[in-house]
Amino acid sequence: MAATRPSGPATPETLAAQVLGVLWFVSVTTGPWGAAAIAAAGGEETLRCEDLKLGQYICKDPKINDATQEPVNCTNYTAHVPCFPAPNITCKDFGGNETHFTGNEVGFLKPVSCRNVNGYSYKVAVALSLFLGWLGADRFYLGYPALGLLKFCTVGFCGIGSLIDFILISMQIVGPSDGSSYIIDYYGTRLIRLSITNETFRKTQLYP
Fold first, then answer.
1. CA within 20 to 30 Å of 78's CA: 38, 55, 60, 109, which one?
2. What is the spatial distance between Cα 189 and Cα 22, in angstroms, rounded to a whole number?
3. What is the pLDDT of residues 105-131, one digit of tens each?
4. Which residue range forms the structural domain that includes residue 152?
5. Are the C-beta atoms of residues 77 and 179 closer than 8 Å to each other?
6. Is the pTM of this model over 0.70?
7. Total number of domains in the chain
8. Do residues 55 and 109 both lie within one domain?
């Protein structure tokens, strides 16, 4: 016949032992050893460096080509600049290697937009339109010989066409005929056109 264990109120020593056991379990599972065990068991995957939040990395300014005033190695309207994760950040670099960064290593390459230029200077186009627009020099320079000849024969449409062309060129509405962009200082006054397409849409304004 099995002996029955007497049931009664738990002693203070038993309660203290149970509390210490719970505290020990929590400290082990939430501490560094617990995190390592979770990672070894197939836990959360290491974050890619491209997915770091703002403030967790810093990117260098693009190197500008003096002739084109666009970032070096601009291909298909895109260039890349190196970005450095902050010290003590661990993430996967562009090679897929998990690295603990010290702030001096390149973590990933960030794409930056650039423009296609073909030798047409914005300053030259504006100057020609201002001083020789009545002769059609601005249109000849930008690759519109028919309009340039027409302006030359009509003295800039009696001055009205010269004034309109000067406004359009100054506002960068009229550009080179080959579809390229003007050469403008990289940190100068550039016109950026905003439009709504399938990739951009209006978000509903949320009020508190």
1. 55
2. 65
3. 999 999 998 999 999 999 999 999 999
4. 119-183
5. no
6. no
7. 2
8. yes
